[in-house]
Amino acid sequence: MAINLATKYSDQIAEVFTRASFIKGKTAETFDLTGVKTLKVYTPITVEEVDYDRDGGLARYGDVTEMQDVVQELTMTQDKAFTLTIDKGNNLDQNLVKNAADMLRLQLNEKSTPAADKYAFKRFVTMAGNIVESTAKPTKSDIISKIADASQALDDALVPDDNRYIYLTSEMYKLVCTSDEFAGVDVLARQSIAKGVCGEVFGMNVVRVPKSYLPENVYFLVTHKDSVLMPYKIADAKVHEDPVGVSGALIEGRHYYDAYVLGAKCGGVYALVAADSVTDSPSIAEGVITIPTDATVRYTLDGSDPRYSDSAKDYTASAKLTAEEGCKIRAYAVKTGLYPSPVIEG
Question: What is the pLDDT at residue 13?
Fold first, then answer.
C-alpha cells in the first residue's frame, strides 16, 4: 500500500471519528476466564413448594429430591490480531506525524474496539431470552409503547431495576425524542450518566449507537448488566522500535475475547427485530418434533433451556422422545440467516 507523503500544508493525519466501546463496563464482571478456554457455569434448579403434610410422617415436607443444575458451556472463539509498520524514512518525509503510540491508539479505536462491539451485539441478540418480532418498523407514534413492552418483559422475568441498558440507533433515538408520548425530552438529553449513556426511559439507561453496530433487522436491544458477559482473556498491544528487519516501528496487537448471554438470566436480554427475521417455531406431538423447513432443532429432555443447556442435542427427524420424569421436552429451531425461534414445550 502506498504511503501518502505530507506536504508543507499538511503535517497531521486526519483521524476518522471514533468512539470508545459502547459495551465495556455494561456487562457482568463476576466470571474469570483466565487460564482456560472453556468455562462451565452451573445454575442450581429450585423446586416448587408443596403443602405441609402434618400427617405425612417423614414426608411432611414433600418428597425429597436431589438438587439438580443446568450447565452452560462458554467457549472463547474470537482470537484476533493485527500488525503494521511505520517506516522511519516515510515518517521523516511526513514530518514525523506518525507517532507509533498514536498510531496504535488509532488502530484500537478505529478497528479493534468497533469490531468487538459489533460481534458482542450480534451475540447478545442471537442468544437473547426474548427475541420479539415487530410487523412494522417502529414509528414515533409507537416506539414508546414498544420500549414499554420490553421493560414489562424484564419486570415479568424479575430482572432487577438497576443496570438496565437499552441500545438505540440514532434513528430510533430520534423517534423517542420526537414521540408525542414522551414528555421528558429535555431531561433525557441532560442526564449524561456515563460515556455513551444519554439518559433514561422507563428506568433503562439509553445508549445511542451507530446504525452499523446493531445487527441487521434489529430495532433495539435491551440488556441487564448481570445477564451478559464480554470476557477478555488477552488484550495485548505493543510497539517495537527498530526490530530486526524493520527500520522504524513495528506495531502488533492481539485480542482474545467472546460474548455470551447467561442462560439463568436470559430474561434480562430483549431484542426487537423485524418480522420474518426469526425462525419458525417447531412443534411437538406425542414425543415427535416437527422441524421447520431448512432449520435445525435442538432439544432437551431434562426441562432445561436448550438454547443454553449443556445437555441440549440436535434432533433427528421422526425420532420419538421421552422426557425425564417430572420434566417436559423443550426445543427451539434455528435457520441460517435468521434469529432463533422461541422455545416450545411438549
Answer: 43
User: Residue 161 and residue 248: Cα distance in Å, rounded?
Assistant: 53
Rg (CA), the chain: 25
CA distance between the termini of the chain = 59
3-class secondary-structure state, position 137:
coil
CB-based burial, 37-50: b 16+ in 10 Å, e otherwise: eebebebeeeeeee
Q: Is 59 exposed, middle or buried (0-12, 13-18, 19+ CB in 10 A)?
A: exposed
Return the HEC string of 71-93.
Answer: EEEEECCEEEEEEEEEEHHHHHH
Q: How far is CA 146 from CA 106, 172, 181, 292, in A?
A: 38, 11, 12, 28
**Per the structure block, which three cell numbers stand in for 227?**
445477564
Strands 204-209 and 232-241: unpaired
Burial class (CB in 10 A: 0-12, 13-18, 19+), 199: buried
What is the four-CA torsion angle of 137, 143, 267, 199, rounded to 10 degrees? 130
Q: Check residue 10 and give its pLDDT.
A: 45
Ranges of the chain whose pLDDT falls below 50: 1, 8-16, 185-187, 189-190, 192-194
- Cβ 318 vs Cβ 331: under 8 Å: no
3-class DSSP state of 307? coil
d(CA 24, CA 170): 20
Helix axes 143-156, 170-178, angle to 10 degrees: 100
